[in-house]
Amino acid sequence: MAVIGIIGAGQAGSTLARALVAAGHDVVIANSRGPETLAGLVGELGSRARAAHVADAAAAADFAIIAFPYAPGDRLPAEELAGKVVIDINNYMAWRDGSYPEVDLGHKTVHELRQEQLPASKVVKAFTHVQFHERHPLRGQEDELPAVVRLARPAGAADRKALVVSSDFPEAAELVTRLYDDLGFDAVDNSPLSESWRSAPGTPMWSHSVDGQSREELVRNLRNAHRVIG
Ligand SMILES: NC(=O)c1ccc[n+]([C@@H]2O[C@H](COP(=O)([O-])OP(=O)(O)OC[C@H]3O[C@@H](n4cnc5c(N)ncnc54)[C@H](OP(=O)(O)O)[C@@H]3O)[C@@H](O)[C@H]2O)c1
């Protein structure tokens, strides 16, 4: 099994780590404060997980997940991630992160900006529209599970949900397609990164991030997206 580097260990990074370890993957996880602050999490995750500094996690990874918002000044381990697939799970939310004119004006997507920060890596947008927290409002005990676990189904199940993937590198989209399948989801390829605005917050597919959507619904929702400029 590949070693997956997870950079960012908040709600999303730690929940993905739990789901990936449960699916049999090895993870090395990092945050901005250092591995000692992740002792509780890796203790819970068991022998398939360890914590590391960001650069060490990137170096140890066969591929990596960036689980924190984009910022122009991000200091990323570009050298350690060179040649590797880097899964960017960030959603552009100006109210949270500040606004970026090239994104607001429709010149670029936030994931193309991430690709520019990591020119030697293969950036792929994924996991952005599945929740890593409990359902709101709760309808029953199962809703206490994060959607990435609650909505997972075996391949071929009638109610299997689909998640979107976008990249400028077909091999990166294929890697994510296999990872989605491992975790219990179908994939819809919405490449390249310049098209990834179709799955941004506020688009038709976005409102299904709570209870998921089938492959057919996701394809239709992506097609019906309209780019908001300004
Ligand atoms: N939460 C969800 O349900 C969800 C769903 C889909 C997508 N996302 C996306 O996932 C990303 C993370 O969301 P979240 O809810 O997990 O946020 P969060 O709880 O605030 O966690 C952010 C994590 O990233 C780490 N971090 C921040 N800057 C870093 C850097 N430069 N280097 C290394 N680690 C860094 C933080 O470490 P420290 O605590 O040590 O600073 C923290 O562990 C966001 O971009 C969000 O849009 C979230």
TrEMBL record:
InterPro entries: NAD(P)-bd_dom_sf, P5C_Rdtase_cat_N, STEAP_metalloreductase. The keyword Iron does not apply. Keywords: Oxidoreductase. GO terms for molecular function: oxidoreductase activity. SUPFAM superfamilies: NAD(P)-binding Rossmann-fold domains. Residues 4-92 form the Pyrroline-5-carboxylate reductase catalytic N-terminal domain. This is Pyrroline-5-carboxylate reductase catalytic N-terminal domain-containing protein.
